């Protein structure tokens, strides 16, 4: 008797079952809290292995996790490349393998790119809900790639901003962004113009040197720093890192992978999961930075969500 082959759930199907990133919020909040609870939380997740591909300026990330609360076991394989010559190839590509945790059988292979875009934006939204100032009116997005779109979608669904601004290194892509999304967006000619007076800022670029300077940031603003996931890459300058209260998804990952944290020497105040558990305060009246690197357990709960929805319809 042969075993059942794994199912393949491609990007369109993932998108169909995960049409709004906000569907993931309860599962992600629980996963972040469980992760920060240590062994008691039942999340088994090493810091990811990132294998450089120096000849081509690329990286392969291997991201396994088990969540006892969800009884879900996955590993994501994600590649990310700097300076791709062929602009039709996305800079980040990912696949998630979902296993039966009781016996190790591979149950499903899922497109991981939609999952990565949506779970990352949903985690930034969780941080923003906790850390943004009261009466936040202006949202600023730096970058106009995949993450910029997914962040725009969930931020405008969950929060009411009077103004949304975008800046991108290549202005035409910011203009295209403004014409594609569902609401009005002001395209700015410089990052400083976009950031000045903003209450909530998202940095979602492939920059390797700071694009956001502490000088420009309104006191009390909240920053979601999504890019710069290598120990020698930066998006935020030292002034911003040192003069903000710093929240991370994982302390171990931040101290291993984040150039903004390692090179600035900034002190980590809390993991987001500690705030969700209530063991650390949120401090929304301060200038806050959430340094996001992306955690495997986020992919685990997202893949389980998609697989369960797919199974229910099949
Ligand atoms: N924290 C997390 O969980 C995750 C983080 N990420 C990170 O988020 C960031 C964005 O990813 P994604 O949207 O998928 O990438 P995309 O390739 O879709 O977009 C990249 C964006 O970065 C801009 N950019 C590239 N180089 C520079 C530079 N030197 N200075 C300023 N802007 C630059 C590009 O501008 P232009 O149009 O001019 O090329 C573009 O707007 C990446 O750093 C990625 O690694 C991704 C997944 C998960
Ligand atoms: O969590 C993730 O998938 C990634 N973080 C940085 C690059 C990809």
CATH class of the largest domain: Alpha Beta
| Uncertain segments | none
Question: Largest beta sheet: what is the strand line-up?
Answer: 10-9-8-11-12-15-13-14
- What is the SS-derived class? alpha/beta
Tell me about the biggest sheet?
8 strands, parallel
CATH superfamily of the largest domain: NAD(P)-binding Rossmann-like Domain
What does the radius of gyration come to?
19 Å
Fold-level CATH name of the largest domain: Rossmann fold
Strand-and-helix sequence, N→C? Answer: EHHEEEEEEHEHEHEHEEHEHHEHEH
Q: Number of DSSP strands?
A: 15
Helical coverage, percent range: 25-40%
Q: What characteristic shape results from the CA principal axes?
A: globular
Task: Report how far the terminal alpha carbons are from each other.
Answer: 23 Å
